[in-house]
Amino acid sequence: MSEIRVATFDGPGAKPVIRTVPKPAVPKKAALIRIGCCGVCGTDLHILKGHWPKPLPWPFTLGHELAGVIVEKGPELETDWTGQTLEVGSKVMLPPLMPCGQCDWCRRYPEQANKCLTPVYYGRYLGFEKPPHLWGGWAEMVYVDLDMLPGTKIYKLPDDMPLLLGSLSEPLTSCIRGFERAKKAGGFPWGASVVIQGTGPIGILAIAAAYEMGAGKVIAVGAPEKPRLELARAFGAVATVNIEECKTAEERIRRVRELVGGYGADLVMDCSGHPTAGPEGVEFLRDGGTYVEMGQFTDAGPVLTNWHRICTKDVTILGSWAFTANDIPLGIRMLDRARERYPWRAMQTLFPFDAAGVQAAIDAANAMRVVKATIVPDEKLLAA
Question: Omega of the bond prior to 227 within 30 degrees of 0, cis?
Fold first, then answer.
């Protein structure tokens, strides 16, 4: 392959443009990764709607939930971030958030290296104009170079893990970190009752993560019935609350409390991204419960709330932003050990890698016709 196709966007609301760039040389600490598949994240959709609060280097290539195979590498790129040997043919994933390892947050607060002052972001903060132009997952290949971008993190996937499954490791890791924060705060006891707000990809993955980390029962609140609530139950939700049927907060609060039993849930996690979820979710909680906010990844605006309820209910409120380098292996291992326990593949609807296919994936995700729209630059790799 002497030329590589990439999808770029010129700004919010723009249609995808497929561009062709020359295959680059691969220096000593670099690699070319051929992408088998890459998911469409809610963050991608928000960026395309103009919701991202910081300047972005338009045009650039979106996509960060990628899994692929190393097709060329330099002699000094020997291991992944965890020390596993990398070879041509190794299956890998590449997360978007790559802390530098040098700033105060990385050195003094490693558990919060997700707040690194100078991170590398694939699929977001690296513009197309920067050579060799391969900086996102909606492309045939992605380029890594640890001399150019020393914050880069590469993670080897198990040799027998399907790339489609591996591409879920990045979003699943965000869920794991949210629950880990709750555990450290004493708010996620073994056998806990858990309510998940939102039944998009993160909400569905959060159901699996909750059970794998010790939840006793999980209830999901979201819409639509098909495909999302139906899939939530397939992933183990003991019950679902359809927000298209229970149309007021009062109805949903009453229904959730009926389903949870007792005084309310031990833990509620917001994966919806809707600003009104917080005040409503606090009322799903029992007194003394824990609320984890991880859905507000972009600024959806303020919402009126009554902080007296937070005080009088004696609740713990936790925010969780993305993940750190140490969290990603947890996501990969959870997927590996739980391969047969959940219908992972049922989450993913595949779209071809061309301008029409990329736009169709975006449209389907925005319309909630699918759970996880997944773009496939190389279908042959998915069979490996």
Answer: yes
Handedness of CA 116, 117, 121, 124 (dihedral sign): positive
Query: Which pLDDT score, from 0 to 100, does residue 107 have?
Result: 86
CA-to-CA separations, 352 to 63, 329, 361, 379, in angstroms, rounded: 14, 29, 9, 9
pLDDT tens track for 109-130: 878 888 888 888 899 999 999 9
Q: Which domain holds residue 247?
A: 174-319
> By C-alpha distance, which of 81, 78, 72, 84 is closest to 33?
72
The predicted model gives 56-62 an average pLDDT of 97
* CA dist., res. 188 & res. 180, Å (int): 8
- Give the pair of three-digit tokens for residue 327: 């969290």
Please indicate, yes or no, whether residues 7 and 63 belong to a single structural domain of this protein: yes
Beta bridge partners of 89: none
For 246, 257, 266, 309, 345, the CA distances from 263, given in Å and listed in that order, are 20, 7, 9, 15, 36
* Nearest-angstrom CA–CA distance, 263 and 286: 5
Domain presence at residue 168: no
Residues 6+ apart with CB under 8 A from 174: 202, 294, 320, 322, 323
How many structural domains comprise the chain?
2
Report whether 267 contacts 242 (CB < 8 A): no
Closest CA to 5 of 142, 148, 127: 142
